[in-house]
Amino acid sequence: MPSRRTFLKVAASAALIPLVNIDIKAAQAAEKVSPKDATAIALKFEEDASKSTNRADKQGVAAADQYCDNCQYYTADAGTDGWGGCALFQNKLVPAKGWCMGWTHKAG
Predict the structure, then answer these.
(1) pTM of structure
(2) CATH of 31-95, one of 4.10.490.10, 3.40.50.1000, 1.25.40.620, 3.30.70.250
């Protein structure tokens, strides 16, 4: 049977796991999504939303008003000059004025 001391060491180590994941996500976010990425191709990702022929009115938002920066999956990153992390692309950077099929209106 493990001792109380061993249990506390394991519990303390497990509590640090979320902090490690945050650092890994920050490192991944520094990379821009390539239009040739398999996920980008599947989601018909465009770095310039105005070039997309796949946009359609969705969730009460006109196609012309759909951009990464008003999508719920987009997170603006300070110091990235118009780029931000996207949950659909494993927090890699996407342009604020980009678009993909996963676009979902950001509430609020």
Answers:
(1) 0.70
(2) 4.10.490.10
